[in-house]
Amino acid sequence: MKIKKYNNVKNISGNKLKELRKEANMSQQDLAEKLQLEGVDLTSKEISKIENNNRLVQDFELFAFAKIFKVSADEFNVVI
After folding, report:
1. For the chain, which has fewer Cβ within 10 Å, the N-terminal or C-terminal residue?
2. Separation of alpha carbons 70 and 80, rounded Å
3. Domain tally for the chain?
4. CA separation for the pair 39, 66 (Å, rounded)
5. Helix and strand tally (H, E) in the chain?
């Protein structure tokens, strides 16, 4: 059985992503552009879905977020 939601959300990292992005005074489009430089092709719309817990996050995307914000990937492991 595949689990596609946990506590009715699709990821547990969206809130932290939004927090880090806002602390960096970065728009979703800015983040999308930085991700493209890392080889991760996400649109601002997909980033919005992640931040609103409506899209699953791939492991390579999570590591790219961590690299861009200079934090450990563990920072995104937030308990709901």
Report:
1. N
2. 23
3. 1
4. 14
5. 4, 0
